[in-house]
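Troubleshooting entry. The earlier prediction with calcium ion gave an output that would not parse, so I re-checked the input for stray whitespace and re-submitted. Clean input:
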Amino acid sequence: MTANGKPLVLIVEDETDLVTLLRYNLEKEGFRVTTAADGEEALLIASEQPPNLVLLDWMLPLMSGIEVCRQLRRGPRTREVPIIMLTARGEEADRVRGLNSGADDYVAKPFSPTELLARIRAVLRRATPSLSEEMLRYEDLSMDLAAHRVRRSGRDIHLGPTEFRLLRHFMQHPGRVFSREQLLDLVWGHDVYVEPRTVDVHIRRLRKALNEDEQTDLIRTVRSAGYALDHKGG
Ligand code: CA
């Protein structure tokens, strides 16, 4: 997400006419657009400035769209970026292969810009609730992203900046277990060196702030695996 609030879409396609058409339609609908004409350029651009979504053509010179998709899923900065594959091939087997490679959705050519935009919005809503919603909720917990405010059962909760980012990340992926290393990458940023133990310190602070009296512990510790936001506690 960028400062001006417009989601960034990376178009990976070697057909210039289609790129022009896609760019026009996306910009008209309030997206920012970057483009790459082959897979290597796409991987470079995506790792330097991870987009909010990748539109990835199947048939590309040098490296196939599938391979680009796999590599994006392996990149520490791009593994969570939603990917929509574009392809002229309509066979079911190809579709399955596309989804197995880690793509979030699949759109067959030719498609209408309206259809594609609807799919883009749906994938973005699923992948990054914060793009479409200013408010995150989990159980009796709410986070107002615009006002930077957290409440539990009506009680204001004051968090330090790191605890706030940790909780935001958990609330965007409720129930999912993240290792210390993943949390360091996702919450602290991949180029900051912090010891994994630091995560425990901030989790402890977050727990203390969230859980008062007899309230359920919303953070689950998964031994030797990591942490999750989970009302079943533990
Ligand atoms: Ca192509």
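This one parsed fine. The CA atoms of residues 82 and 126 lie 9 Å apart.
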